[in-house]
Every structure is written in structure tokens, then in C-alpha cells.
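Input (Serine protease):
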Amino acid sequence: MRRTTTLSTCLASLLLIGSWAAVGTGSASAAAAPEAAPTSASKAPASNALIDAMRRDFGLTKAGAEARLAAEKKATATEPKAERAAGAAYGGSWFDADSGKLTVAVKDGASAATLAAVRETGASVRTVKYSARQLDAAKARIDKLTAPDGVSNWYVDAESSSVVVGVVGAQRADNDVRAFLAKARAGGSVAVTVEETAAAPETFAAGTVGGDPFYTGNVRCSIGFSVHGGFVTAGHCGGAGQGVSGWDRSYIGNIQGSSFPENDYAWVNVGSGWWTVPVVLGWGTVSDQLVRGSNEAPVGASICRSGSTTHWHCGNVLAKNETVNYSQGAVRQMTKTSVCAEPGDSGGSFISGDQAQGVTSGGWGNCSTGGETWYQPINEILNRYGLTLHTA
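Output:
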């Protein structure tokens, strides 16, 4: 089914970005591991694929990239412990790339014992005006409003202890935008701040083009992550019951569940000789990445994306639990990144180290001039449909 290539490249091509192919009838575990990817026993923080992409996009040395990944892994493990230690005073957290540590916001007035308990986890502490519970309640109130096109997104920013509303710069003076901001600020004690964005977010689906896609009708999208029995992707790529075909238009399976807007996720069952492997494709530019879990990276951590249009790109996690206002309707509980994307990348993999993070939803900009991209967190998708991530 697929053009002639080596076994290791073929196997790596099965998972991501519509690159599924029948290379045999045995299970993925019986085949050779992807070329240049570390084994499960390896102590390497990530494959050469991710290290190379971080060196390119962050301007790091190999040692610098490995050190950052190690620090982020430690911060990821620290975050839930620090949140428990802070208790009701918890105000959010983020990874500080300069210090290599997790910073935890704690509400003013917290006891000395609480502050000490948070510091004992290894996190730095910053006192803030509001707790995460207060900030989340303020955002939930804004979620009930209907946003005009000039409002791009809104989210809780732990660092500024406020709810931030993104407004397209050229439409900031629009009457509907001003009315929305007035309603967002009315009746609440939590600060609501405004940040200008360059453009309104759009989903990253595309019409039929060549490459290694998967298709629903004439829409091309990218595969996110293998799960047992299929793969997950973006909901805007197709509705439940739709047939899905691979890069060569041969039948893969059907969309078993899909949600968009409000959410942006879907999952597809796999059959007809197609099969799954726990790999994120490097597209021949970089080596491929094994997937070993789905521990959630903190705000500030590095993250990379693979998609069928623009391949590998890296950036930082900018915000979580963000509401994104697409023209089709709002999507909630999204994570914002500084990674670029373009049409056809929708549904593709966001990965931090060897940990799956989510599937590409949409954003603004492109990979020539830059931009921002949101993803739907992977663990929410797995929990929603009762799926199990296929890991190495």
C-alpha cells in the first residue's frame, strides 16, 4: 500500500499524520523499533527527533535541550505535590525555563506552614491575589457569554493572577468586543485583563492535497496518537459515523466518537489491515519519537508538534484551560502553545519529551511568520471515550 521504504521507516509512518499502512499482518510489538528511537530501557530524555527540533526552535545545544527536558520532567512530577501542599490557597503554577524550576502561586494570607510545605516539594513560591478556585470561577462566568468574532480566546493566567481575554488587535475598538469585555468584567472581583492577538484562531483542517494524510471526505487531517483499537484526532475533522481513509484512499475505519465545537476531539477505529504503533513520525527530517505515557507538562515547558503539512516544530506551553472562540463556536479546556501550525496539521501530535500531551486543534499564523496553536489535552480524550493510550 505504501511506497517502498525501509521497515523501520514504514513502521514509524503508521502512527502519525495519516501515515497508516499495512506492512504486515503481525502486531506492532513484533516488528523492529523505529530507527534512532531509544528503547524503553533507555535513560535518554527523548529521541534524537525531539532533541534536534528543540535545538532548532529554541537555539539550544544538545546538552541544553537534555537539561531542559530533565528539569521539565522534574517539574511535571512536582506540580501535583505542590498543589496538594498549597491546598485552598493554590493559585496555579508554571515552569520557569530560566531557573529550571516550577513556580507555584499561593494566595496572599496563606500560613507560613503552607508556604513551607510548598517549598518542601522543591517548587518556588510566589504570592498572588487570587486562588485558582476564584480564577476558575471567574473564567466559568465568562464561558457563559457569547463572544463576537473579534474576541479570540480567554484563559486563567496564574502568573498575573487574572483572567486574560485575547482580542484581535484590529477589532479592539469594535462595539461588540467592547460590550463583551464590559460583561466579562461586570459583577466579578477577579481582574480581567486584555491581550491583543494578531489574528483570529482558525482550525487547521484542509482540502484534499498530496502527502501522508488521512481523509474524511475531502478533508485532510493528521493522526494524533495511537490508542488500543484506533487513534485519536481532532473533532472538527469529521463527525461520528464518517468513514476514514489513509494516504492512498484505502479504508481505515470509522469515526467512533466526535465532538466539535465545545470540545475538539474524535477517535477512529482501525481495521482492514491497518494497525497501530506508539510512534510520533519525524518525517525523515528528524528521527521518530516513541510515546511512553501522557503525564501533563506544566505551563512554561517545552513542547513539540508533528503534523502532515509542516512536520516538526517546537515551542512552549503558554496557558491551560483556555476557551478558544472559533467561527464555528467556542471550544473549552484547551492548551495554548507558541508552536506554529498550518492547514492539514489538525489532529496531529503534541508531545513533551516522550509524553503525549494532546491533538492539534487550531490557531493563528503559519510556520513562515510564526503564530500560536491550541491543542485538546490527550487525557481528557482518553477519559471521555474510555480509551487506553498505546505506549512503548
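The two ends are 25 Å apart (CA to CA).
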